[in-house]
Amino acid sequence: MALSLIPFIQQRCNTVNFFMRRTGPELWKTITAVSKSGQKKGRRATRQPIRNLDRFYRIGSGPMKVQFAGLNAPLEIKKDPVMLVEQSEEEQKEEREKFKKIVEEKPTSASKRRFREKLHPLERGFSGTQLVGQKLGPPPPVGDVNFDDFQTYCLEVKRTSNMTRVFGRVHTMNALIVTGNGRGLAGYAVGKAAIHRTNNAIVNAMKMASRKLFFVELLEGRTIYQDFYAECRNTRIFAQRRPAGFGLICHPRLVKICEVIGIKDIYVKVEGSTRNYLALTHAFITGLLNQETHQQLAERKGLHVVEMSPHRHYLPEIVASPILTDLKTDDEVLPIEKLKLDDFYGEGRYALRKKKVLPFYINTPGHKEAQWRKHPFRNQEQAMIRLLADGVVERWTRDKRRAWGEARNEAVMNGLLPLPRGIGLSDVVPKPEK
């Protein structure tokens, strides 16, 4: 055994100290972690994200360049372990350009923001950039059946919770979806998924809605057959049919439902809870499915279905007649039978039609005198419309006015008509003879 002649010097190397006891992720966790209760209250958004400091700051690269022996400088025994060296202007400029280049370079795919497609204002959802209210396209196919002509809307996305004995309070995401082809065939469903999995809940709801389709009969392919009342929980709706061109005057969620079904003209009044969208959807669709066509009503009552429209001066017109059942006579019709359509589907409720509030000046002498002066001309506008409709007076369209003006101008230029003169009109100044 050989003995070393070098004297043994024991050096203590303490590798576990205050600065080495914790790792980097553990130190970041102390300032970025949020408790479960804090996450529910929204404290997660107020915490600073974890930043990669090595990309922006390197040891000894400041304006006062610090040299650490063995770290960013060679290890020399004669020199001090830490030395301060001033940087030159070229080195400082190089460091600034390097830092600027790091900041301006494109972020990585992990930190890149989610790409959002810019939508037309009419295609946006109910609020901002949220998915609720936007078009989602057709549902996925089921076997050999595809839904290419269907359109889907998301009516609601919310978080629900359930208290369990093993896991405690379990949160899930719920999505209410409605889909349809715009020709009476539609369906709706509620999809569920784990917390923060909104897209999964929407996809599950689209699959379920495509398997729960129903058909709604439409009058003239645009509106409902009769006014109806429907309710679900604390949501009550009054639906009224409207003439062509009226549009959809109803709740924003009901507008989307009407679009996928194919309803173009309707007025719906919602009372009670207007934010329980599932109850609102269920009540409206229940009322649509409980409708009767005119032929079904005629078969059930054994009477003619007669329409009296103001467009025909309330002259009766038979819309449907019983075919499979016998037509009742006047003696067979009981006095207690309902004969008006408004009495059938309202469940004893009628729409409130308020009278127009009269202005405060209706009985003043000045207003009465003005009305008396207008009295001889009260039917002038209606008479003008009637003359145009019957063809007695030709329509004075823009093209006809232009043609008439060109003909008059040509006649004046040819000397067939005198040039009109007067206040506000141009005058003809003859040229002086030389």
Briefly characterize the structure.
By secondary structure, the protein is an alpha+beta fold. The protein has ten helices and twelve strands. Among the domains are: 52-99, no CATH class; 124-215, Double Stranded RNA Binding Domain; 228-343, Ribosomal Protein S5, domain 2 (2-Layer Sandwich), CATH 3.30.230.10; 365-408, no CATH class.
Structural notes for this entry:
This protein is an alpha+beta fold and 434 residues long. Among the domains are: 52-99, no CATH class; 124-215, Double Stranded RNA Binding Domain (2-Layer Sandwich), CATH 3.30.160.20; 228-343, Ribosomal Protein S5, domain 2 (2-Layer Sandwich); 365-408, no CATH class. It has helices at 24-32, 36-40, 89-104, 198-210, 252-261, 277-289, 294-301, 365-374, 380-390, 398-413; strands at residues 64-68, 82-86, 151-164, 168-180, 185-194, 213-215, 228-232, 235-241, 248-249, 266-272, 305-308, 316-320. The strands form four sheets. The protein has a four-stranded antiparallel beta sheet. A four-stranded mixed beta sheet has the order 7-8-10-9. Strand 9 (248-249), helix 5 and strand 10 form a beta-alpha-beta unit. The radius of gyration is 41 Å and the shape is flat.
CATH architecture label name of the domain at 228-343: 2-Layer Sandwich
Helix count equals 10
- Tell me the β content: 15-25%
Shape: flat
Low-confidence stretches: none
Biggest sheet: strand arrangement:
3-4-5-6
**How far is the N terminus from the C terminus?**
144 Å
Instruction: Give Rg in angstroms.
Output: 41 Å
Structural class: alpha+beta
CATH topology of the domain at 228-343: Ribosomal Protein S5, domain 2
Task: Write down how many β-strands occur, each being a DSSP E stretch of 2 or more residues.
Answer: 12
| pLDDT averaged over residues | 85
Q: Mind telling me the CATH class of the domain at 228-343?
A: Alpha Beta
Write down the secondary-structure element order.
Answer: HHEEHEEEHEEEEHEHHEEHHH
- Main sheet record: 4 strands, antiparallel
User: Could you estimate the helical fraction of the residues in percent?
Assistant: 25-40%
Keywords: Mitochondrion, Ribonucleoprotein, Ribosomal protein
Protein name: Small ribosomal subunit protein uS5m
GO biological process, one term: translation
Subcellular location: Mitochondrion
